[in-house]
Amino acid sequence: MVMMLASVVDNVTNDTYVLMGTGLLIVMLTLGIGAIWEILEYFSDLAFGYGAQGSPLLDPLDDTMWDLVLDGAGGLLGGIFGPLYLRHSRRSRARLRYFAEVSRSPDL
Asked: Of 75, 74, 52, 73, whose CA–CA distance to 64 is shortest?
């Protein structure tokens, strides 16, 4: 839903700041979801003793930090290429035309 709204706003305004804001939103959401996942792993270890944190090669703190670093790297890649895809793809342009037609519909 957020990406749909960002796509519509980006295509309507065609502003560079919207493009950068969308990229930042993607990075922040990715890091936030990764942090929530790590917290859930921690509490599952406390409650059930699953050993979800850590691996044969890493202790739990190193495992958590590498997970967050890789979440950040994936978020950064998505934050760079996601908004560019939204702005330049034919599929995104077609969706924008569809949303514009639906929003002009008298049935709303």
From this structure: 52
